[in-house]
Amino acid sequence: MNFFDWLSGATAVTPGEDRLTFVTRDMFVKAIGETLQMVGVALVFGTILGIAIGATLALTRRGGILRQPVVYGVLSVVVNLIRSLPFIILLVAILPFTRLVVGTGIGTWAAIVPLTVMVAPYIGRLIENSLLEVPAGLIEAARAMGASPWQILVRVLIPEARGSLVLAITIATIGLTDATAMAGTVGGGGLGTIALDYGWQRYDAFAMLVTVIALIVLVQLIQLLGTRISRRFRRR
Amino acid sequence: MVPLTSDGHVVFEGVSKTFPGTRRATGTVALRDVSLDIAPGTIYGVIGYSGAGKSTLIRTVNGLEQPTAGRVLVDGTDVASLSGRALRDAQKRTGMIFQQFNLLETVRARDNVALPLRLDGVGAREARARADEVLEFVGLGGRADSHPGELSGGQKQRVGIARALVRQPRILLADEATSALDPTTTGQIIELLRRINSEYGTTVLVVTHEMDVIRDLAGRVAVMEGGAVVEEGAVLDVFVHPQQPITRDFVTTVVPQHLPDRVRTDLGGAALWRLLLLDDQVVQPLVSTVVTELGVSVNMLHADMTEIQEHTVGQMIVAVDGPADRVAAARAYLAERVVSLEEVDA
Questions:
Q1: Which chain A residue lies closest to B87 (C-alpha atoms)?
Q2: Which end of chain B is more exposed for a tag (fewer CB within 10 A), N or C?
């Protein structure tokens, strides 16, 4: 069996013959789907939470327009706390919370919860930095116009920072793709599971190679898309 | 009591501002007991070096800075006492322009100008239409679709001015609005600010470190040093009779008063006088009269003329030589016919 037979959907395991791989094409396609699902869903929820966290950090910090040192301090510590845990540990540590949210500790959805919890503070920090890049003079001009803090955020900070926000979210998306490799721990599936269960455990070099190529292509596409969108936003 | 008709009236009453210190640095006094009355519909200048407190002062008018003491009355309302929504409503009645323009880089000129209206809940279509009208007024009718990055400094400041005007405020605050611009562009922006003042009766409060901006734009001026107003008056008076050393320094930047050292030493014992002339005095045949009728020799070292608030201000520095009694007579003759005559230290 050669690569093209595999691509046409031939069964992976043919007893007695030279074996290309344990992984069928359909298993592989399913794994890509699971990876995309985990990245996509965690990204949507993580971005929503991340924008809220990032905006709160940027506005409440010392010198920010809302100046709430206590709020900033507490949130900042929580963010650092979550970010100091390696994902594989976070994944296991919050299992009770995951069961509470999705009703199970196993499967793709059970992986999405810790992925979201991991990426939201990460996106939050990146967004905080993006918002802080907006020149202070612009914020002052908006204050002089009588803009409320909410209006300054929505009409000045986010539009002016959007190019750098897109780049921040691009970085986070790649970080998410990275983390999905560990989703196998809770039976989340995805490309990482193929690489570990077949490529690593069964010395299936083909499975490993295809997974690696797929991940490289995926990350390149994410970066390309992010750079494109960001450039369009930055165009002056 | 402020009459209802005279809106655009700004009064500073004993305004002081101290920036609190930290564990490492002591507090900074930015304003010391500043009291000024800015009449509605006038153009008022505040001049000082950096750190004099002038930017802090102008920012108390629209609540960007809160004074630690005193009141800032804008049409009878103490802005310093406002906060939250009341402050934001007060801010909407005042326009402000900045040295660095502070435009949104990601949106077109039109949307920059429309922003204050959008904040007020005006629909996009109407806000843009009104923005276009104001851009037309400031002479940027053709650049409404440009992004700020595509505009020159002068054009950016015009967008800033249009944005400040779009709500038709009674007060326009200009914080070093021409300091980032070249002389020609500065002149155009000054012309535009004068036109806004004369056509709409907008009170314009200008903060600058450039005396020629004060000369060309303001009717009255306050000179600030170390957070305090050290001199205040009609611009013409301040130019002709500067009282404080710092004011003289500023006047000198526009009307030179110093002779090169070389010239002074070469003159020997001749009397050196600086004459200041106003309006009709500049057309008198002063020099020829003292030469022919009093028989002294007059060496004209310097002469210039400048226009301040529609008045002509002339200056001459002359070296006068001759017998002592004749020089004294010449001095008496000239002193009667000019605004001021003073010895220039040789």
A1: A146
A2: N
